[in-house]
Amino acid sequence: MQRDPELIRQLMLRLESFPMGRGAVLMLDPCEDLLVEGYSHDQIDYHMRQILMSGWVDMAGGLGISISGKFSFRALTPAGHDFVDSVRDEAIWRLTKNGVTEAGGFTLETLSALGKAFLKKQVEKLTGLELPG
Predict the structure, then answer these.
(1) CB-based burial of residue 5 (10 Å sphere; 0-12 exposed, 13-18 middle, 19+ buried)?
(2) Which of 8, 24, 87, 103 has CB 3.0 to 4.6 Å from 115, enough for a Cys bridge?
(3) Given 40, 55, 77, which residue is the final one in a domain?
(4) This prediction's pTM
(5) Does 53 reside within a domain?
(6) What is the pLDDT of residues 111-120, one digit of tens each?
(7) What Pfam families is this protein classified in (predicted)?
(8) pLDDT digits (tens, 9 = 90+) for 74-110
């Protein structure tokens, strides 16, 4: 199965949206709790596993994926938040998605880096300041 950057973004935005109290841990079923219109259960499950393996999600002490397919979720990691924050804006997301599409492939690291680069340019344009890095 090929990775779909749009599904990855939608899943990450959905994870971020869960109201999490201090110390809370959710047991999420990707095929029930993370449905994304237009995608099959297999696609959602596969992409969620890719996200979990990327280190973008705090799985509550590494409890991981259960036999039932549920996974423990405490929060997005800093890297997960960086990804979501860099691709939240639709215009920046279009640029990011078009960039990886035109390149013919992507890694999760590249997808995140490209989103951050477009976000950085947008901030510089809006503030007139040049950001380091």
Answers:
(1) buried
(2) 87
(3) 77
(4) 0.90
(5) yes
(6) 999 999 999 9
(7) DUF2513 (PF10711)
(8) 999 999 999 999 999 999 999 999 999 999 989 999 9
